[in-house]
Model the fold of this input.
Amino acid sequence: MRERVSWDGRVVLDLGCGTGFHLPRFASTAARTVGVEPHPDLVALARRRTRALDNVEVLAGAAQEIPLPDASVDVVHVRWAYFFGPGSEPGLKEIARVVRRGGTALVVDNDGTRSTFGRWFSLGYPKIDHAAVERFWARHGWSRTPVLTRMSFTSEADLEAVVRIEFDRETADAIMRERPGTEVDYAVNVWSRDF
Done:
């Protein structure tokens, strides 16, 4: 993401911030960091995680109705919130509303076309047409940067716990029968757009 845009001294929106895991990282160099999350329990966790950070605010809200004024942020970060592209148009419209001219939005998304995790993702979500997802982002003016990373765990039990969170029981059982070990290669796409 840093290769694409700097958030130093800027206003960052982490849309769908969950427990606020990424908020301290942004806040370490951003002028102001705002997390928006629709789930009340996660809002509370994000607020607790960032309570000592003066330049962080966590708001309850959804991607379809971001609780911020027009043209009020410089960088938007969205991770794992727009997996499937089509259907997320209301959220993309809101991003366009809140980003200042000269700002950038980044969406980190699973890439089901490559990597071990990508194969698992396709197994767990067979109705997703990955070519249609790519066409969707391109049609809306977003650029794709493919990234290959990995997940590392201290034990196979830890990996299994994550697999069982991410996938239904049948898919998770099939994955674990592979005996995947403690490291999994993981492909993602970073979709970006300048405004």
